[in-house]
Design goal:
By secondary structure, this protein is mainly beta. 0% of the residues lie in helices and 50% in strands. Strands 2, 4, 5, 6, 9, 10 and 11 form a 7-stranded mixed beta sheet that branches. Strands 1-3-8-7 form a 4-stranded antiparallel beta sheet, with no helix packed on it. A hairpin with a 6-residue loop joins strand 4 and strand 5. The mean pLDDT is 95.
Length: 123
């Protein structure tokens, strides 16, 4: 069982930055691929970024490529999402998720989810 707790969301102006954190419980964090997803009101949950168990592989949605960076610190059981050059269309609840095995872009492939953190970007 893995429990995930996100933090770092908030209100920021367009062009600004935020760093989201997701702390995982359990001793096997380093065995899980991690992902960040987001969901805006009235829309489906969508893939943002994912990172392999050792941080060696990362993948991004085209909409955030070059602006967002996913990273992890297995010693701290934490995965991060650095978000720069934020746009109003990035406004959403951001969720981190964990899955045993390789990276995936599909939400249903993830086994554990956090409660989400709100990110609001004003124009």
């Amino acid at each position: 069982q893995v429990q995930l707790v996100e933090s770092g969301g908030g209100l920021v102006q367009a062009g600004g930055s935020l760093r989201l954190s997701c702390v995982a419980s359990g001793r096997t964090f380093s065995s899980y691929a991690m992902g960040w997803f987001r969901q805006a009101p009235g829309k489906e949950r969508e893939f943002v970024a994912t990172i392999s168990w050792n941080g060696g592989s990362t993948y991004y949605a085209d909409s955030v490529k070059g602006r967002f960076t996913i990273s992890r610190d297995n010693a701290k059981n934490t995965v991060y999402l650095q978000m720069d050059s934020l746009k109003p269309e990035d406004t959403a609840v951001y969720y981190c998720a964990a899955r045993w095995g390789g990276t995936y872009r599909i939400p249903t492939q993830y086994d554990y989810w956090g409660q989400g953190t709100q990110v609001t970007v004003s124009s």
